[in-house]
Amino acid sequence: MSQTSDASALSDTLRTLLVFDLPVLVAALMALVACGTLGNWLVLRKESMTGDAIAHSVLPGLVGGFLVVGRHSVVAMFAGAAIAGVAAILLAGWVRRQTKLESGAALGIVFTAFFAFGVAMLEMQGARQVDLDPGCVLFGALETLFLVVPHGGHWISGVPREVWTLTGAALLAVLFSVAFWKELAALAFDREHAHTTGVSPRALDQLMLCVTSVAIVASFEAVGSVLVISLLACPSLIAAPHTVHLRGRFAMSLGVGSLLTVLGYGMAAYAPNLFGTSTALNAAGMIATLLALAVPVSYSIRALLNRRMA
Amino acid sequence: MTQNLLPLVLAEIGRNTLVALLGCALFGAVAGAVGTFVLARRQALIADVAGHASLPGVCIGFLLGEALGVGGRTPWLLVLGASCSALLASVSVPALARLRGVGPDGAIAVSLSFFFGLGTVLLSSVQSHDSGAQGGLRSLLFGSVAGTTSADIVALTALACVALLVLVTFFKEFAALAFDESHARSVGLPVRRLDLLLLFLLVVTVVSGMQVAGIVLVVALIVTPAAAARAFRGSIARIVSIGALFGVLSAIAGVALSLRFEHFPTGSAMTLAATAILFATLLLRIRPTRGVVT
Amino acid sequence: MMDATRGALEGSAGTRPAKSATESPTRLHAPLELRNFSAGYSASELPVVDASFVLERGSMTALVGPNGAGKSTMLKGILGLTPVHDPSAARFFGEPLERVRGKVAYLPQRSELDWSFPASALDIVAMGLYGRLGLFRRVGRAARAEAREALALVGLAHAQDKPIGELSGGQRQRVLVARALVQRAELVLLDEPFANVDEVTEQTIARVLQELRAQGTTILAVHHDLGTVRSIFADAILFNTRVLAHGPVRATLADASVARAYGLALNTAPDTAHDAERNS
User: Fold this and answer.
1) What is the enclosing helix (H) or strand (E) of C236?
2) Cross-chain residue pair B288–A134, CB shorter than 8 Å
3) Subunits with at least 3 CB pairs below 8 A relative to chain C?
C-alpha cells in the first residue's frame, strides 16, 4: 500500500475510509446497480435462475481467456466469458429438449459442468498464471479493492480496475433499462401480447442476455458468484411486497439494496472489532446474507401492515 | 484369482485409497438413485441449494468442535451441522416460493444467497482461527478424496447407508409419487409427507458426498447421472438402477482422475465424468422414455 | 395523428371516421382468411387440423367448442405465438401478419398473466399503444389521455391508478379489453373474454364489442358458454380440432352439430366455474 503525499496529512480514520473502504463500497454499490437493475427484469420474468446459471457458466471462459492471452486482460475476459455463457445457454436448451427435463434441471446440469471445468482449469496448471483464486470466484475479493496510488501519481490512477469495469457495467444496465423500458415491461407482463404488437421477444431476450452477461462478468471477479446471485434476485424481491408500480419497484429495490450493502460491508469490516478480533469477515458474503434475509423480513412487514390496516 | 488380485491392487493403490474408492462408489450409487426421484419431483435446484447450504452448518460444526475442545474437524459434528443447515434450507425453498411474486426461481435464489452467504461469512471467521486444521475446510468447496481421513469415509458410508435404507423401505411410495402424482394422491398416499421424506433423503445424500464431491458440485452427482438414466426405457426399478450405475461410474472415474492428476479437485472430476456419461447417452440417441417422467 | 386517434376513440360510441382511399388495397381482402391451417408442436399431435374459413369485414364470430378442442391454440397459431404447419395459410387483409400487425389486436386469457406485476390499470392499457409509439419513445400525455378514454369506455375511469393486483377478476378482464381497444385494430382476436366474469363486466364487454363491430371492426372470440353465445355473437364457428360448421349462430349451433362437436354427451354448459378467481 503506497501512500499519497496528501493522504499522510489526513487523520488515520479518514485515510482508512478513503483508501480502503470507499473503493470497496463504490465497487459493491456499482455491482448492486448493475445486477439489481437487470435483476428486477429477471425477477419479473421469473428467470432469476438464468442469472445464477450465467454466473457459474462464465468461469471456464474467463480462465480460458486469461490463459490464451497470458495475462489479465479485460477484453479477453469478456470475450471468453461471452463465449462460455452463450455456449452454456445453448447447451442447456439442447439438454432440455433431449431429456425432456424442466429448464431448471437442464440449466443445473450444464452450469455445474461448466463450473466444474472452470474450477479444474484454475486449480491445475492455470492456477499459477491466472491471478484468480477458486475461492474468490465464489466469495469475491471485495476487500482487496483498495486505492493503490503510485508515488506522486494522481489518486484517480490508483482506483482499482474492477471499480471501473463495474461502473461501466452499471451504466450499461441503467441505459439498457431506460432505453427499452416500455418493451421490457410489456414483455415481462404479457409476452404474447407484446409479440402481437410488434415487440420482438427473441431479439430483446438476446439483448437482455448479453447485457446481463456483461453485468455478471464485471461483478463476478470483484464480488463473487454468491453476491451476484443475491444481487440479481433479492433487491427486487425486497421491494415486491411494498411497491405497486414499476418505477417504485426499481427505486425501492436499489434504495434499500444500497442501504443493506453499506450496512453489510460495515458489519463485515467493523463488527469483529466489537468482539475483540481484528480479522474482517467476508464482506460479499455478509451483504448477500443480509439482502436474502431482508426478503422474508420485508414480506413479514407487509403482512403486519396489512393486519394493522384491516 | 481374486485372492491373487486383491493384494496386488492393495499394494498398488493403498488400503486407505481403496476404502475411499469403495465409499465414493457407494455414495455415487445412492446419489444416482435418489437423483432419479429428485428429477421427477422437479427438485433439482433444491439439491443445489442443499449442497451450498451445508457450508454454514459445517462451519458451525467446526467452531463448535473447537469450542468443545474435541477439534474442529470432528466428522460427526460437521455432519450434524451440515445436515441441519441443508435441511433448513431445503425446507425454506417451498415456504419462500409461496410468497406472492417470489415463485420457485426466486425462492431458490434467496435461499441460496442466505445460506451460502452465511457460509462464506462463517468460513472467513473459521479461517481466522489459528488451529491449522481449518485448511481442510477449504477443500470442502470442490471436494477432495486425498484430504479425507478414514473417519470421514466412515461418516460418508454411514450416511449413504441411511439414505439407501430409506430409499429401499419407501421405494414403492416414492415410485408412485414420482411417476404419477395424481394417482399417488388417489390411492391415498401422503404426498406432502413423502415429499418431505424425499427432501430428507436428498439432504442425507448431499451431506454424505460433501467431503468428496464438494458442497458446490455435489448437486451434479445427484442430477446428472439421473438425467442420463432417463434416456433409457424400462421399469422404474430399471431406470433407478441405471441412475445408480452411472453414479458409481462417475464417482469412480472422478476419484481416479483426481488421484492421477495433482490439483484436480475430486468434485470437478466427478462432475465432468457424469456430464461425459450424460452427453454420451444423449448422443448415442436412445430415445427418451416418453411419458414415464414428465 | 393523435387527433385522429382521439376521434376514433370518441367515435366508438357513434361513427368512426372514414378511412382514406389510399388504404383501400387491403380493404378488398377479408380481414382473416385461413386455408388449410394446421398448428401444433409436432406432426403427430396437431390440436388444429386443416382449418379453413373466411371472416368478413365487420363480422362478429364466436369460436365455439369443448375444452381442449384447440381453440386457444388456433388463435395463438394464427398470431404466430405457437408453431404452425404453414404460416402462409393465414392471411390478414390479404397479407402476412408482419405487414399488418398494427391492424390486429389480441386479448389473451386473463388467467395466464401474473397480476402481481407492479403496474396500474392505466399502465397496462398504455401497453396497447407501445407498438404504435415505436422504440425509444416515452408514453406521453397524449398516449395517456388515449388510454384513459379506453378505460372510461369499459367503465373503469375511476380505477385508472389502481394497482392491477387490487382489481377484481372482471375489472382485470376489462383492463385487457381496454388495452385491445387502444390498439384501434381492424381485427380483434379474443381468447375467452367472458370467462369467469361478473354480470357488469359481461355486459360491458358485450356492449364494447357490439360498438366496435358497428364501426366495421372484425371480431373473433373464443367462447365456450353456449348459454350466452346467441345473445352476443352473430356468427359462430363450431370447432373441435377441425372446423365443423361456420355460419350464423342459430344455424351453426343446431343441436345435432353441437352434439358432434362436444362428443356424445350434449352439454350446454361445459364450464360452470364462476368467478372463482374474483375472490382471490
Assistant:
1) strand C235-240
2) no
3) A, B
Q: Quote the ipTM score.
A: 0.91
Give the chain A residue nearest B232 (alpha carbons). Answer: A99
Distance CA C163, CA C173 (A): 14
Determine the distance in angstroms separating the CA of A75 from the nearest CA of chain B, rounded to an integer.
27
How close, in Å, is residue A10 to chain B by CA atoms?
Answer: 30
CATH of the domain at B177: 1.10.3470.10
DSSP H helices, C108-158, are 121-126, 130-133, 141-153
* Whole-number Å distance between alpha carbons of B280 and C3: 64
CB–CB contact B108 A268 (8 Å)? no
C-alpha angle B113-B114-B119 in degrees, rounded to nearest 5: 95
Residue B5: what pLDDT?
65
Residue with more model confidence, B4 or C266: B4
Contact A197 C130 (CB under 8 A): yes
Q: Quick one: closest CA in B to C118, which residue?
A: B101
- B111 touching chain A per CB within 8 A: yes
Radius of gyration of chain A (CA): 20
Do A284 and A219 meet the contact criterion of CB atoms below 8 Å apart?
no
CB pairs under 8 A between A and B: 208
pLDDT in tens, B181-232: 888 888 888 888 999 999 999 999 999 999 899 999 999 999 999 999 988 8
Q: Which three cell numbers stand for residue A58?
A: 462464465
- Locus of grid cell 500500500: A1
Residue B152 lies in domain: 18-129+141-283
Domains detected in chain A: 7-301 (1.10.3470.10)
- By the CB < 8 Å criterion, does B188 face chain C? no
Does pLDDT of C18 surpass 50?
A: no
Nearest CA in chain C to A182: C130
* Residue B2 in domain: no
Number of domains in chain B: 1
CATH 1.20.1640.10 is right for the domain spanning C2-8+26-261: no
Contact across the interface for B124 and A280, Cβ inside 8 Å: yes
Q: Please, are residues A146 and A283 in contact by the beta-carbon 8 Å criterion?
A: no
